[in-house]
Design goal:
The structure is a homodimer. By secondary structure, the first copy, chain A, is mainly alpha-helical. Helix content of chain A is 70%, strand content 7%. In chain A, helix 3 crosses helix 4 (63-75).
Chain lengths: 143, 143
Amino acid sequence: MSNNIIKFEKYFRHLSFIIKIEGRKALKDYPDMTKAMFEILQLIYFNKNLKAKDIASNLDISRPAVSEILAKLEKGNYIEKTKNINDKRVTYFLLTKKGKKVINSVIKSRVNFIKSIFNENEIEILTNIFNELLNRQNKIDKK
Amino acid sequence: MSNNIIKFEKYFRHLSFIIKIEGRKALKDYPDMTKAMFEILQLIYFNKNLKAKDIASNLDISRPAVSEILAKLEKGNYIEKTKNINDKRVTYFLLTKKGKKVINSVIKSRVNFIKSIFNENEIEILTNIFNELLNRQNKIDKK
């Protein structure tokens, strides 16, 4: 059993890595987008109401570095600033249509790669197992 | 079919993310280790003969930033410098015993988390599918 888990972790890690690489190939269509810019773009996409300081602590980089990358994302029209309704001193960030298009291109590229390496039957078995796992986890979270 | 792949990509991405978070919890035992330091430590562990400029281009960060992080890793006794036998002007990096211990702690933490969320039967099915996939890929690479 234990050996199988060690093997599984290794395979899963490898697969994660190659899917990530394939996904990011979609970024070639956005030559101004650096790795650091994409990391922050992703973070804003998947988390609501992020402030610059949350981004800094989440990615473990300095506030000035975050400000510089946010400015580049804004200049490239990938994100826009928005104010908190209750406290106008607080600035959040949102993805623009162009920013969302970048994320969707990367996801599409991941999906296409997955389609090219697994067969239908494998996808079905894997999806069922992951689905069941996430259901179990939701139940645990709600307890 | 297509819907299943989209679901699978999403589940896989989520699972990758939570396993990564759980793995990195092991880093609490190394409070001097920043996220950027760990990224570079990992890169050196999984790739032989990396030079500072390879690290910079791989992580898409500036050479001075890479040098600073490498100096911190060396100071913390996580990595050591080594010279190329054929060209003594070229410096590579290697993990020390302590550096390897960090990587192994993170992997162990990932393995323990996987063990806690999947059952034996699921691990076996997943491992078999991943194993078969990697065999197919190796065959393609060797063609």
